[in-house]
Amino acid sequence: MNILAIDTSNETMGVAVLKEGQLAGEYITKVKKNHSVRLLPAIDQIMRETEVNPKDLDKIVVAKGPGSYTGVRIGLSTAKTMAWTLNIPIVAVSSLEVVAYQSAYLNKQVCPFFDARRGLVYTGLYQSNDKGNVTLLWDEINISFEKWLERLAEEGKPTVFLSQDVDIHKGLIEEYMGDLAIIPESMYHLPRPSLLALAGAGKQPDSLHTLTPNYLRLVEAEAKWLEKQEKSKDD
Amino acid sequence: MNIKDQYILGIETSCDETAVAIVKNGTEIISNVVASQIESHKRFGGVVPEIASRHHVEQMTIVLEEAFTKAKMTIDDIDAVAVTEGPGLVGALLIGVNTAKALAFANSKPLIGVHHIAGHIYANQLEKEFSFPLLALVVSGGHTELILMKDHGSFEIIGETRDDAAGEAYDKVARTLQLPYPGGPFIDKLAQEGKETIDFPRAWLEQDSYDFSFSGLKSAVINKLHNAEQRNEVLEKEDIAASFQASVIDVLVTKTLKAAIAYDVKQVIVAGGVAANKGLRKELEAKFVASPIELLIPPLYLCTDNAAMIAAAGTVAYNQGHRAAWDLNANPSLSLEKYSLRTKYEN
Ligand SMILES: [Zn+2]
């Protein structure tokens, strides 16, 4: 089974190639540069070096967000088009789940998150067990980080916090969670595309045409419009 | 020996249409699929960029598949993939660009970036062979330009709007008249029913200028409506529309004719969404009927955004040796003249 995994959903960009189920190559950067410019050259390079032709691929795995709307769409349009034209299955994995996989085998509660500005985050709560499984405990949500941390503190369990944006929120996490917060070094926070491939390998394929990003948030104009519709219904 | 037929796939997502087409030899449409988002944006009174991008990513592979099914072809029959790289909404453009890159890469096909306006101009090539020099009047929601072409792939802007595009002025006046979105066709329709009773200003600018300006006209119309409202005076919407449209068309047609004569062109072609305007078509036809200059206006479905026009322009760029690399990006403010030079000299 040859798998191409693509993650452009956040600042960390990753591409991995699994050859016959084994990791053959992985490309990962965390730089503030354009994913649209760099994604295909990265795919091209890694596939050449691992000597996997597009026609040899059996599956595409893609990170579907949450994250940067534009970033998620770059990955998804690339992945969907490749899966469609090569006629192979596509599997989309939540970008938060990919981050949570960084803590596989740790046997702990894991809170992956992405900064969503104005005090908000995209987050969810996962449980990692000692068999390498990572399962969702609390649904993914776009929420005020303080509110979320309040709930976690009430729960009172040691929690691993993983995020490329951890530096911005470290103080807040420690304020709410105190000793319950486990925050590793920066290397552990970046979602690895090989783990994206691993997470996707065990999942059922998505339906190609209807696969859409995991935005976790309505467009502002649409939210306002819906609100107006609701109001006029009440009147 | 037979010259092999060429099939170019075009992809267009610069605004609110998701479009894919296959064109043979740059002139013959094999399939042309357009998924419009107008219904979704109507409720907001205009295109919401983020919503446009979301729709593109939902529609893209569906439209792609339909274009191949309708053509009864597969990607193996395609010589190159052409895509709009700009100008347009950046988030929207990105869907097309990344789709085109993935498609070309996965199948080892050449990739070609196309300028959206070059596409609008080349929509005419799907109807009739070009003869140079030619003058193109490009009028749409985002553009009002007079472009001189001395040869294929060469574009020289000799006049452009200094403020609003003609289509933009139409949309703003339509909003003031409380017409539904998009307003252009409604104004055109009302104008056919009304009379030119108000003498709105015409912005001729300097004597030798082929530039345009529509913001003064737009303000004049809005002021007229406000003043009438304050005096409880009733103005017929039809007459406002007819008077406004008469001013726009007068300037567009007069400047186009003047430039066509000055540059001694063989053809004048009209491109862009506003080319669908009946009043504009009628007036141009009347002005050019007696001249030796041939007037080309594409049918309605080729005036609005589509991918056949991108494939047609892409065919020219392909045959001139232009190829894009895998780092091709969306360029929301891509200049036509820079694109023109690149097509000519790069590679
Ligand atoms: Zn257009």
Question: Could you characterize the architecture of this molecule?
Answer:
The complex is a heterodimer of chains A (235) and B (347). With 235 residues, chain A is of the alpha/beta class. Chain A contains 7 helices and 10 strands. In chain A, the strands form 2 sheets. Chain A has a 5-stranded mixed sheet with strand order 3-2-1-4-5, with helices on both faces. In chain A, strands 8-7-6-9-10 form a 5-stranded mixed sheet. The termini of chain A are far apart. Chain B is α/β, with parallel strands linked by helices and 347 residues long. Chain B has 2 domains: 7-122 and 303-319, ATPase, nucleotide binding domain (Nucleotidyltransferase, domain 5); 130-297, ATPase, nucleotide binding domain (Nucleotidyltransferase, domain 5), CATH 3.30.420.40. Helix content of chain B is 44%, strand content 17%. In chain B, the strands form 2 sheets. In chain B, strands 3-2-1-4-5 form a 5-stranded mixed sheet, sandwiched between helices. A 5-stranded mixed sheet of chain B has the order 8-7-6-9-10, sandwiched between helices. The relative contact order of chain B is 0.18. The A-B interface holds A 34, 36-41, 43-44, 54, 69-70, 73-74, 76-82, 84-86, 208-210, 212-213, 215, 219-222, 225 and B 43-44, 48, 50-51, 53-54, 56-58, 60-62, 64-65, 75, 90-91, 94-95, 97-99, 101-103, 105-108, 325-327, 329-330. Bound molecules: zinc ion. Residues 116, 120, 140, 272, 305 of chain B line the site of zinc ion.
